[in-house]
Amino acid sequence: MADAAGRLTKLAEEVLGAPLPVRIRAWDRSESGPPGAPTLVFRNRRALRRLLFKPGELGLARAWVAGDIDVDGDLYDALDLLAGLVWERGSDAPKPQRAAVLRALARPEVRHAARELLTLVGAPVPPAPPAEESRRRRGPLHTLLRDKEAISHHYDVGNDFYELVLGPSMVYSCAYWEAPDATLEDAQRDKLDLICRKLALQEDQRLLDVGCGWGSMVLHAAREYGVRAVGITLSEEQATYARKRIAEAGLADRVEIRVQDYREIKDEPFDAISSVGMAEHVGRARYAEYADALYALLRPGGRLLNHQIARRPLADEETYHVDEFIDRYVFPDGELAPVGRTVAQLEEAGFEVRDVEAIREHYALTLRQWVTNLERHWDAALRLTSLGRARVWRLYMAASALSFERNRIGVNQVLAVRTPEPGASGLPLRARTWTG
């Protein structure tokens, strides 16, 4: 296939109706596209087969995870240039894009070019998806068993791998940065402390941490504020790791880690609840149940801090679809909601929402630091997991950082109170003293 890059560029531009923003280098060493731009490298013909048999985001993701496609140049720059074509999130773009592609493929000259490519790429069958792709899930969304399987797919990758990416804090959520040049460890400690101050934690209060991860939140709250804490997770590996950390800190008498779903807790009431980076897994079908359950677990006057990624609202909410790459490779069954819907559903459950803090720029900084950690320890990461899994993480974290930077998605801390009768919230007149 002489000048494969030129042919690929021509076909892509015919379909897109616009110049391709990146260069292409093909397996025959041919190159095409704007000079100086990041280069999308097609390492073999199988990469093209993946895109032809599954056009768009999922085909590109499979090619990336399998190592059939790579980027020569800055990954962030390449993803930013490609965002409007395949990686755009939080907008109405995908359906119009698919319609435009179908219209383009209906043109005779494009059909001819596509047929020519199909005859030259080799085997006329689609390649098998990479092993890292989650299996197709059936049945109702967000049952206890299905949620446990989805959480295991993402979190049971190996604690040693997470240590490389997250650093010593082992906090897998947005940090809170005093300045861009602060350390990740300081920023994660500041985030944990900010949550504790928003919850106004006091010695011997009962704290429930929903989705406790590797135990960082309950560990900080027990050590620094003297609370008695329960942390729940659906990941066996996380629970084992968290219990070891707590025992080593001498806090086993104050902190309990359970492998348990929030819908299974029966030992209420709690004085405070933190839910950090967990509600994205709940899904719209179960969010009212989630809000009702947390309300019931709190004592009157108790506070909830809900830290949650949000997407931009759509003109027609029924058009919302879960990102295929994220659903297949990262967070199976995960769903994002606009912050307004989250606030409304918490209030419908009975909460009084008292504060909403948007911190999306903080998540972009956090993700870029995680990518740096992964790239710095790449060889060690490959000893701990598969090459495909490491590539999944590098792609999803870099793409997510850009999504936060471009305001395609955000993250918010919502402070809500189970306000008792006759209506005293327990907050000071100037509640935001915690940010000082």
What are its keywords?
436 residues; alpha/beta; Rossmann fold; seven-stranded mixed beta sheet; four-stranded mixed beta sheet; lipid metabolism; Cyclopropane-fatty-acyl-phospholipid synthase family protein; MeTfrase_dom
Q: Could you explain the architecture of this structure?
A:
The protein is α/β, with parallel strands linked by helices and 436 residues long. α2 (45-53) packs antiparallel against α3 (57-66), α3 (57-66) crosses α17 (387-405) and α4 packs across α17 (387-405). It folds into 2 domains: 4-120, no CATH class; 144-435, Rossmann fold (3-Layer(aba) Sandwich), CATH 3.40.50. It contains 17 helices and 11 strands. The strands form 2 sheets. A 7-stranded mixed sheet has the order 7-6-5-8-9-11-10. Strands 2-1-3-4 form a 4-stranded mixed sheet.
Q: In terms of structural class, how would the helical and strand content be classed?
A: alpha/beta
- In which order are the strands of the major sheet placed? 7-6-5-8-9-11-10
Characterize the largest beta sheet: strand count, sense, and whether it forms a barrel.
7 strands, mixed
First and last CA, distance: 64 Å
Domain tally: 2
Which radius of gyration do the C-alpha atoms yield? 24 Å
- Name given to the CATH architecture of the largest domain: 3-Layer(aba) Sandwich
The CATH homologous superfamily name of the largest domain equals Vaccinia Virus protein VP39
Pfam families: CMAS
InterPro entries: CFA/CMAS, CMAS, MeTfrase_dom, SAM-dependent_MTases_sf
Enzyme class: transferase
GO molecular function: methyltransferase activity
